[in-house]
Design a protein that fits this description.
By secondary structure, this protein is mainly alpha-helical. It has a domain of about 60 residues. Helix content is about 65%, strand content about 0%. The protein is built from seven helices and no strands.
Length: about 170
């Protein structure tokens, strides 16, 4: 109760601090407008320019990877049902031999990633698509099935075993 009394005293005394008469300026006594400053005011970029600037800035590695993944999925969904891509995929699946299937899968990946690359919105996405394409094409390589020119065409299991042992021992010595 005592605290309430003191609080009321401060509120009532606060009204005493205000001046009794407030002079408002009349129309005749206007303040002069401020003179323009000698330094030029920097131009503020348009909203669309600001949007582009924020789209280009990196939010971190994880955010950039997430953005690329979202864009990649969007492109996959766009091109998945195009007739040319569907027919290339069906041709690869209907191949009779492994060699034929790998050749048709190469054609499919070239068409598929070529179309996605054409629709990509940024250079960063195009580079990522090139990397994905290279990874898929690398899976189709079978270096042991077709020997490199200049090497022996026969496979010698003893020589491979000796080579493996030699590599294994050289790793432990380092």
């Amino acid at each position: 109760m005592v605290a309430l009394f003191f609080a009321m005293q401060f509120v009532l005394r606060g009204q005493d601090a205000a001046p009794a008469i407030v002079d408002l300026p009349t129309e005749k006594t206007q303040t002069p407008s401020p003179a323009p400053s000698p330094s030029p005011i920097p131009e503020v970029p348009e909203l669309s320019q600001l949007d582009q600037a924020f789209k280009q800035t990196s939010l971190g590695k994880a955010a950039d990877e997430y953005r690329l993944r979202v864009e990649w999925r969007r492109l996959q969904n766009l091109v998945a049902h195009e007739p040319e891509i569907v027919s290339a995929k069906e041709a690869a699946q209907s191949a009779r031999t492994d060699l034929e299937k790998r050749e048709k899968l190469r054609d499919y990946y070239n068409v598929y990633y070529g179309r996605m690359r054409a629709l990509a919105s940024s250079d960063e996405m195009r580079k990522a698509l090139d990397t994905f394409k290279a990874e898929h094409l690398k899976l189709l390589d079978q270096p042991r099935v077709r020997p490199v020119p200049g090497e022996s065409a026969t496979f010698d299991p003893k020589a491979e075993k000796e080579k493996h042992k030699k590599d294994k021992h050289s790793r432990f010595r380092q």
